[in-house]
Design goal:
- This protein is α+β, with helices and mostly antiparallel strands.
- The chain folds into two domains: 40 residues; 182 residues, Immunoglobulin-like (Sandwich), CATH 2.60.40.
- It has two helices and 14 strands, in the order H-H-E-E-E-E-E-E-E-E-E-E-E-E-E-E.
- Strands 10-9-4-3-13-14 form a six-stranded mixed beta sheet, with no helix packed on it.
- Helix 1 runs antiparallel to helix 2.
- It is globular, with a radius of gyration of 26 Å.
- The termini are far apart.
């Protein structure tokens, strides 16, 4: 029977990896300045600090911090900015406050709502070409972004609560967002933004797509589909202007027009009539 080898206190075989405490000492020594205290004031100290952190990450003493972000364009490819962190964009869509994913759609819904019939849930406004400047900050997070501020607005134009669980928004044939368990009140809008950190609203449903819409400005299609994949509404466009495209007449029209043709003072109106009114109060 082989004898177990056990190191005596204070000893360590020469090939054993350095302990975490030892590696932390490396960081402390790297941070020490001329006075013997820790300092970050001088440029060389800051560089020394960063180098020490890299050593710790590589050796496993510390985990690298999450990639911080304020918008999705700051994240690596195939990642999305969500609550200040870059997260993988594959296989997940943010749907509601409960964090349900697409696998939950068939398990739960809006118990007090009815499944929409064709025509009850309408695709009313889309923004595919984000305007420049402050007017392009459609999601209201303080940053104009060509991807994050794209949005799709759907509206319940009935007088009953609708269960829109499983309803999807597509870029062409590709699903970009699927609603989790969601109740949509009478004459209420649901807006899905391409990214960012939009503020919650009391009188509308606000969601953020986990995967960028990435609508093409030169042309494409935005599709609203039911839980079974049936197409409930679509807009096919070419050379989209730098403003939203809005159904005309609102909620009941058969064509989409540039937003400024309905309201000269606004380029977008996510969650509202083109003139800024609540859908529940009627659009002018």
């Amino acid at each position: 029977m082989e004898e177990a080898h056990r190191a005596s206190p204070g000893s360590r075989p020469p090939d054993r990896p350095a302990r975490r405490a030892d590696r932390r000492m490396v960081l402390a020594r790297a941070l020490q300045g001329a006075t013997g205290g820790l300092t970050m004031r001088a440029t060389e100290d800051f560089v020394r600090y960063l180098a020490a952190l890299v050593v710790l990450w590589v050796t496993g003493c510390a985990d690298p911090p999450a990639w911080s972000c304020s918008r999705s364009s700051e994240c690596p490819d195939e990642q999305f900015c969500r609550v200040g962190e870059c997260v993988p964009a594959v296989g997940f869509v943010q749907q509601d406050a409960a964090g349900a994913d697409t696998a939950d759609v068939q398990l739960a819904g809006c118990e007090r709502g009815e499944s929409p019939a064709e025509g009850e849930l309408v695709l009313n406004e889309v923004l595919v070409n984000v305007p420049g400047g402050d007017s392009g900050d459609a999601n209201g997070d303080g940053v104009r972004d060509a991807y994050d501020d794209e949005f799709v607005e759907v509206v319940n134009r009935t007088e009953k609560v609708l269960d829109i669980t499983g309803v999807s928004v597509r870029n062409g044939s590709a699903d970009k967002f699927v609603f989790g368990p969601t109740c949509l009140e009478p004459r209420q809008a649901a807006i899905v933004f391409g990214g960012g950190m939009p503020a919650e609203q009391d009188d509308m449903v606000v969601r953020v797509a986990q995967s960028r819409f990435a609508f093409g400005n030169s042309g494409g299609s935005v599709v609203l589909a039911g839980p079974g994949g049936e197409v409930w509404g679509a807009i096919n466009y070419e050379n989209a202007p730098a403003e939203a495209l809005t159904l005309s007449p609102q909620l009941d029209g058969a064509q989409f027009v540039p937003h400024s043709e309905i309201s000269a003072d606004r380029l977008t109106s996510p969650g509202r009539c083109a003139g800024g009114q609540r859908f529940a109060d009627g659009c002018e």
